[in-house]
């Protein structure tokens, strides 16, 4: 137990510049503490993370269903446009003598506008899916970070007494001051 407290006591004695090396003392490197913290985070955070992911999955699936419905409506519009196209083609045979080129132009405009509408709906669906996925990822990251931070603070607060806590704070302030002087 003295090795653990010694590692906190000597935080102020770290040199600001020097060589790198491996510390083979397991208690001084806090490997066990990190393992315990990670284990607690996994144990307690697994359910919350699973619920968050399930909720996001349902929202994304709902968005996909809505997009598929919009796609279905666009396909229906395309079918209606094709039906109108066949009507226009029939009328074109009747009016071929008077204005064949005008009817062809109208047909192409109708097809182009329908395809543009379908393409816009497909792009909207893809953008919505990407947006929802990114939002879900960001929310999960934020929750995991908050839980990890709370767990780490809880562990630190339960392990430190007042005197050791003050020494650690002073040592960290000294290190940050030295880092600021070096960066300035």
Automatic annotation (TrEMBL):
<keyword id="KW-1133">Transmembrane helix</keyword>
<keyword id="KW-0406">Ion transport</keyword>
<keyword id="KW-0813">Transport</keyword>
<dbReference type="GO" id="GO:0015986">
    <property type="term" value="P:proton motive force-driven ATP synthesis"/>
</dbReference>
<keyword id="KW-0066">ATP synthesis</keyword>
<keyword id="KW-0375">Hydrogen ion transport</keyword>
<dbReference type="GO" id="GO:0045259">
    <property type="term" value="C:proton-transporting ATP synthase complex"/>
</dbReference>
<keyword id="KW-0472">Membrane</keyword>
<keyword id="KW-0138">CF(0)</keyword>
<keyword id="KW-0934">Plastid</keyword>
<feature type="coiled-coil region">
    <location>
        <begin position="64"/>
        <end position="98"/>
    </location>
</feature>
<keyword id="KW-0175">Coiled coil</keyword>
<comment type="function">
    <text>F(1)F(0) ATP synthase produces ATP from ADP in the presence of a proton or sodium gradient. F-type ATPases consist of two structural domains, F(1) containing the extramembraneous catalytic core and F(0) containing the membrane proton channel, linked together by a central stalk and a peripheral stalk. During catalysis, ATP synthesis in the catalytic domain of F(1) is coupled via a rotary mechanism of the central stalk subunits to proton translocation.</text>
</comment>
<feature type="transmembrane region" description="Helical">
    <location>
        <begin position="26"/>
        <end position="49"/>
    </location>
</feature>
<keyword id="KW-0812">Transmembrane</keyword>
<dbReference type="Pfam" id="PF00430">
    <property type="entry name" value="ATP-synt_B"/>
</dbReference>
<dbReference type="GO" id="GO:0015078">
    <property type="term" value="F:proton transmembrane transporter activity"/>
</dbReference>
<comment type="similarity">
    <text>Belongs to the ATPase B chain family.</text>
</comment>
<dbReference type="InterPro" id="IPR002146">
    <property type="entry name" value="ATP_synth_b/b'su_bac/chlpt"/>
</dbReference>
<protein>
    <submittedName>
        <fullName>ATP synthase CF0 subunit I</fullName>
    </submittedName>
</protein>
């Amino acid at each position: 137990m003295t090795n653990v407290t010694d590692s906190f006591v000597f935080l102020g004695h770290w040199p600001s510049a020097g060589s790198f090396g491996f510390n083979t003392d397991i208690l001084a490197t806090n490997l066990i503490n990190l393992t315990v913290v990670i284990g607690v985070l996994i144990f307690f955070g697994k359910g919350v993370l699973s619920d968050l992911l399930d909720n996001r999955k349902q929202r994304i699936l709902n968005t996909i269903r809505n997009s598929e419905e919009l796609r279905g409506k666009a396909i229906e519009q395309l079918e209606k446009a094709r039906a109108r196209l066949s009507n226009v083609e029939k009328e074109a045979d009747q009016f071929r003598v008077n204005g064949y080129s005008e009817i062809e132009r109208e047909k192409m405009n109708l097809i182009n506008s329908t395809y543009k509408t379908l393409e816009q709906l497909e792009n909207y669906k893809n953008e919505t899916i990407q947006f929802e996925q990114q939002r879900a990822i960001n929310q999960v990251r934020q929750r995991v970070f908050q839980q990890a931070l709370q767990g780490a603070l809880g562990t630190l607060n339960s392990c430190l007494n007042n005197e050791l806590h003050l020494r650690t704070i002073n040592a960290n302030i000294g290190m940050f001051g030295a880092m600021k002087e070096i960066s300035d």
